[in-house]
Amino acid sequence: MSAEIQEVRDFLAAHHPFDLLPQAVLGNVARSVQIIYARRGTVLMKPGDTVDTLYVVRTGAAETRDPDGHLLARPCEGECFGVRALLRGGVAVNRIEVIEDSLLYTLSADLFQQLRQDHSSFSYFFAAFDGGRIGDAMKVNAKDVDFLSKQVSELLTRAPVTSPPDIHIRQAAQRMRDQRVSCLLITDEQGGLAGILTDRDLRGRVVAEGLDYATPITRVMTPNPRCVQAETLVFDAMLLMSRHNIHHLPVLKDGAVAGCLTTSTVVDSQSASPLYMAKKVHGATEVAQLKAVISQVPLLVEGLASQGASTHGIGHVVSALTDAVAVRLLNLAEARFGPPPVPYAWLAAGSQARQEQTAVSDQDNCVILHDSYDPVAHGPYFKQMMQFVSDGLNECGYVYCPGEMMATTDKWRQPLAVWHDYFRRWIEEPDPKALMLSSIFFDLRLIHGDAGLFEDLHQTVLEKCRKNRIFQAYMATNALTHRPPLGFFRNLVLISGGDHDHTMDLKHNGIVPIVDLARVYALAGGVKAVNTFERLEAAREAKVLSTDGADDLRDALEFISMIRLRHQAARIRGGMHADNYVSPDELSSFDRSHLKAAFGVVKTLQAALASAYQLGRF
Amino acid sequence: MLAKILGPDVSRWVLGWRSPPGPLKDYYRTDTATVDTPYNRVEMLAVDIETTGLDAEKDEIVSIGFVPVIKGRIVLAQAQHHLVRPDCQVGDQAAKVHRLLDDQLQSAAPIAEILPLFLAALRGRFGVAHHALVERGFLSRACQKLWGQKLEVPFLDTLALEHRLMTRRNQSIGDGALKLAACRERYGLPRLRVHDALSDALGCAELLLAQAAHCSGKKPAAMRDLLE
Q1: Which of B75, B80, B205 sits opposite A3 (nearest CB)?
Q2: B-chain residues near A58 (CB < 8 A)
């Protein structure tokens, strides 16, 4: 009998999916391992090759590419490869090359199939494994819709608007108007449900029929309507509503009326109600109200994320709310200080401009004033107005920009001619340090005011950038400042020491590099868009970026953002401050490998950019 | 002495001829591949022993682990690990080193039962050990005691090989640089957490594969390149 080697067993036991196997089975698996060593550059399989082993990386790393050369995965320590081939009758589908000297455990195909057959959890792991490009990984993870399995009672936002049955139609309508509801629940003496009266009933049964408004409501209400219990699942309630084409569904709890579910309650709560929030922002008359709405943003984001919304979509929603707050504050300011003496344009910069906010973050903004601006006559007006707006934003949680990139700073509240001069200098006489600080101004979006002012500037800037390759090279250098945390291909390079020990910074080492890359492509291609996804798409169309490059970067951005969002949602749920520092331990090995692939994409495209602009230092 | 005059093959033949019928004779009668064969075409057996001390004449083997490397693959299914009951009491010193308890050893099989298992596994294979002098000395001494003839194995010494490779690369060899763990680290091999004879034999086998891969150019290295 062979001896079991504890090292091997311990290693397997620490990695997915072997940890799912029963102890005794794991021992047998460890015993049947064969070990090989492969140097960097060794091609372990090519499409069409016969494959009779499953590989598990003990140390080192390999790279899987599909027949078109697309990078599928970079399996490293503890991860399997060769799975696809084994799942397809032992014929290799992809090319697998060792990219770092590797010690590999191999398991026979027979054993692999046996384990899949005997252990469903093991088999399940491989069903999701090896799905394809990074994009596919999200489809597996994203659709985690628990909304439908919530109870109806969780969706009820207000107490029911009820009435005893002994009122007449006009009283009912007045009550509905005053309470701003589209339906009235009529209760019996015991508080139970006697009937329902809706807007539609008033239209169809009262107005259209020419009924006297003094008619008792019992004549026009729907008696004993369909209703659900508070414990009913949202899903079942929705089914009921759609099956019977009803828009109002009374909810009972312990025999009493507890509330009314409407189609809009369902829709609103399904997206944690961004429209509802926007409506509240538009109607706010003081900062405190805005603050109350914006404090719901983390919940909104969590809700959207849990329903599988893309981070691209979430970015739009959250940024739109920020826009709404800014517009509202500007409106309030104009009401307070009077109409502006000269036309102006209030612009958002940075992530708000790019519509990529996934949380309430710093404010970055600036103002272009019409050239008829007179500092002496108009200066104080704009200064106090911008102070009001900036203070309001700060109070809502959009804290002051530490770099003072705000319209409250005199330098960033200037007439159009001055802005033209700023950009002319940044573009024609680039200074690396100044550029790093001002790169934020190459992502601008008009939020409020005179569109013509911004258009004029934006057009000129784009034109200048597109033609100036030296400037682009400076921006490219800038875009290489932040690197993905991939050391030597193999491992995620983690922050060591300090508060963020053993983590990686997904923002600065993942998202920022992609945003920076997209900016360079966009400026080189004369692209107007500022949103990173849109920039990548437009850069592809303008042929400054390959289709593969654009696809890979988009997937990488979406994936890294999603991981970050999940991390932040988990922190918020845990009552902690959302940050960007993710520990690899909180990720599944599946996510880890895709994250590595995503970082790999960034690294590859940074290298491509460096060589396109012949940046020697890369 | 014999090997120096007659060459290793003749010497092995003579030793086989002199050995009594049994495991040692069987071992000598099975041919090993020639040293011109590429390393990934031959069979090897990585071995590690734990002893009561360093003197092969006085001290005894208390455990042995071995695992074959067949055509470039370490085959764990054929790995073996045995405790060996020493004839005398184990010194406190060695017990501390190996964490083997006396009573554990007292219930183990004697070397006379274990050595044939090892020799059977060694048949047709090159030996591999880190600092092979110890394995060579103790195993040979044990064979001599049991069957009157020494054990002569073409041993690939991963320590000696590493020394040559480092010298060739002009690397300075500091204190402890040739220890198994240090050698493994140089090739990016994982740190061993368990230290028993079998784990160390496996550790040595892995090191050998790494060294051999690094000695290979387009063609895999021949055994000759690794042995000398």
Answers
A1: B80
A2: 190
State how far the Cα of A242 lies from the Cα of A229, in Å rounded to an integer: 17
Structural domains in chain A, sorted by start:
6-132 (2.60.120.10), 156-270 (3.10.580.10), 275-456 (3.30.460.10), 471-612 (1.20.120)
Q: Are B210 and A101 in contact (CB under 8 A)?
A: yes
Among B74, B194, B210, the residue with its CB nearest the CB of A34 is: B74
Domains of chain B, start order: 33-219 (3.30.420.10)
Query: Predicted ipTM?
Result: 0.91
Distance of CA A170 to the CA centre of its chain: 48
Sorted by sequence, the CB contacts under 8 Å of residue A331 that are 6+ apart come out as: none
φ/ψ of residue B217, rounded to 5: -100, -130
Contact B189 A38 (CB under 8 A): no
- DSSP per residue over B70-128, as a string? ETTEEEGGG-EEEEEE-SSPPPHHHHHHHT--HHHHHTSEEHHHHHHHHHHHHTT-EEE
- Give the integer Cα–Cα distance in Å for B83 and B62: 6
**Chain B residues inside the 8 Å CB shell of A100:** 188
Asked if B80 lies within 8 A of A2 by C-beta distance, the reply is yes
Judged by CB atoms closer than 8 Å, whether chains meet at A103 and B193 is answered as no
Residue pairs between chains A and B whose CB atoms are closer than 8 Å:
77
Name the minimum distance, in Å, from the CA of B10 to any CA of chain A. Answer: 34
* Peptide bond between residue A402 and the one before it cis (omega within 30 degrees of 0): no
Look up the pTM and report it.
Answer: 0.50
pLDDT tens, residue order, chain B (228 aa): 555 555 667 788 888 888 888 899 999 988 888 888 999 999 999 999 998 888 888 888 999 999 999 999 999 999 999 999 887 655 555 554 555 666 677 778 899 999 999 999 999 999 999 999 999 999 999 999 999 999 989 999 999 999 999 998 888 888 888 999 999 988 989 888 888 899 999 999 999 999 999 998 888 999 998 987
Cross-chain residue pair A34–B190, CB shorter than 8 Å: no
